[in-house]
Amino acid sequence: xxxxxxxxxxxxxxxxxxxxxxxIIGSNLELAYRFKYMITLVDWINAFFFWVIGILLFIxxxxxWNFPPKKTVRYSELIQGMLFLLMGFYILTLFxxxxxxxxxxxxxYLSLIIFFLGLNVFPNVIRxxxxxxxxxxxxxxxxxxxxxxxxxxxEHAVKADRVKDFSRKILHFFQFAGLLLxxxxxxxxxxxxxxxxxxxxxxxxxxxxxxxxxxxxxxxxGDLLRMDHWEFLPKWGWKWYEKSLxxxxxxxxxxxxxxxxxxxxxWIHPIxxxxxxxxxxxxxxxxxxxxxxxxxxxxTHHLDKxxxxxxxTYEGLIAGIVSTFLGIWLIFVLYPVSSFSLLIIFGLxxxxxxxxxxxxxxxxxxxxxxLNSLMPGSLTWLSIxxxxx
Length: 389
Hints:
This protein is mostly helical. The protein has 14 helices and 4 strands.
């Protein structure tokens, strides 16, 4: 069976799930794939980009392991490092024998690296090497001090936090919409895409990796430079972080969008049913956004007796639970699995809602931005496997 043209798999046992008249590839313990894959040098280089980011994140986290602000984020950073290694593996296995698509990715990634590192960062490295006092008076710590002073005024703090949080959650809505629409469009033009020498799923993942790669190369490398070598960033980078950085939660870790996108793209492999990706993205992007927006703008009853964060509210928690339940239910109504009855869908929606509540209340050492994708994705895939035996 061909999944694109670049690799094929010999099936030992197979279960497929019907999406209307389309077939979604799924798996269970009776399903095993043996991939035979023709990997080119360009594929290895593309994978190398992500492996380097993961390794740099490992190094950064381990070097600052006992740094007090890292205590609540270090395990999340290690997980993100592992997910970057996984993304490199995906790059090796997701595309077709037509080498045009890996070459396009390579050209885009290399151009961005040349622009960001070659033209904007490396000149500052040279200046620092020639003049050790270059930007010595400007440190990341002083930047954080000035940024936090803006939040010292209660009126400004509340307003700024709500506006910034709302704008971030809108971006989460766009991420979910992008994942869904890209999949639907590529499925709609499946025959035309296959004529290009790549499967519809392969082309979908190609689009995902263009957008995600651009974001990760800029933002993750930028975040590592922000925390370790602030003086190397261009001035426009300073201004960007002054406007976008959330000083309470992001001062000493990666931006919040990185773990959400990383965790969601964990579920894009062709052996994973689309419902899994959609469920993970719904909870991490939509349900979490509803919980935050409702809680911060309309919440009045704080979680003083349960959970670990008394700033959160019952209104936000309930909004997240209800939106998780409704979203999972809607996904399996619109994208049905033939073996799922309404009772199973109800149970899956309920289990995911309980998982969301537990994560929202008690996640401490691993970011909820990771867990809100990895947990519903795992639960949904496990349910599809169990009830399709």
